[in-house]
């Protein structure tokens, strides 16, 4: 059976796996974005706190993904839980780092002007600093998403959802007639999803970042 015949026979399962893969990455990115931006907001004013946040999230990223999921299985079991926890932790570093860099890069004169017209600290953060820091934050989100697309495939090791199941099935049956087709289908599916997500982020950037800031 050639690759195209394999896709035709397995398209329904592949679409289901692709949806689960995209859903897992999307949901973990939402959680990682909220946590990462909050960490950035709390730490960007202090040099040592910002360095600590960056170092801590960098350390998490050095843990091999297979080891991370393996360590989580005895604690939270198999399935979705270790996948969500691992992906969320891996997605933090680019978002935290870019949030800190973006917030520190806001022109102090703009913040002072907002303060001068009576804005509270919370209002300055929400209406001035975060909007101006949004471009680097969005870049961090894009980088995290591309990373998690590949890492999410390892979730199949813990009976997690996604296209990694197709890849692991192919690796586990090397020598069979469809082994290469399975690995290739899962790999290409992840690449396509990564490109679609990146295109969506480009569109979001165009819709949410003013032309003046982009220039």
UniProtKB/TrEMBL annotation:
The record's annotation in SUPFAM superfamilies points to:
MetI-like (SSF161098)
Where does the ABC transmembrane type-1 domain start and stop, copy by copy?
Answer: 18-201
Its membrane topology is listed as: Multi-pass membrane protein
Q: State the UniProt keywords alphabetically.
A: Membrane, Transmembrane, Transmembrane helix, Transport
Primary location: membrane
Matching entries from CDD domains are given as: TM_PBP2
**Similarity comment text for this entry:** Belongs to the binding-protein-dependent transport system permease family.
Name-wise, this protein is ABC transporter permease
